[in-house]
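Example (one chain per record):
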Amino acid sequence: MTSGIFGTVSFKDGYASQRYTGVFSDNDHGDGQACRSIRSPSSSAIFSASTPQRNAQVPSLWQSRDGGGLLAVHGEIILRNGNLLVEKNWEGSVLESLIASPKQTANSFDGAFVLAFYNERFRTLLLASDRFGNFALDYRLLKDGISFSTLASSLAHLNGHGTLDKVGLA
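Predicted structure:
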């Protein structure tokens, strides 16, 4: 499996976390693949990142101090000022800009990346990629929400109940 980001947003509070229970967790799956997950306070959204090697760079997962803003980034984002987006500089003006005008903010980013940003207060999800589409980011609309992934095979294996097939992720 390659490294990537995955997630789901549900229209029902608490439902997203039930979908991923036992699939993605903050541990090593025993095959050397490290996974990490974050979820919104109401558990209506959960984002996960995975990498196939322990020492490889895991895609970034950041959560705002109040927990209501979730950001998953695969690749590298360069801000307008030329700085690389890192955890210590996302909480201030970047988070505020994503909340105020998500599309305009994402359009101002440079680099090779895909990102997912969830704003729990407004229940909005932004999926974006760089201008050249260096990384794939696919999504699947569900009866009660949306799931996204940098690996299309993981979405292809969503069954009718919204759970992921581990074989489809391999």
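Caption: Strands lie at 4-10, 34-39, 45-51, 60-63, 69-78, 110-119, 124-129, 138-142, 145-149.
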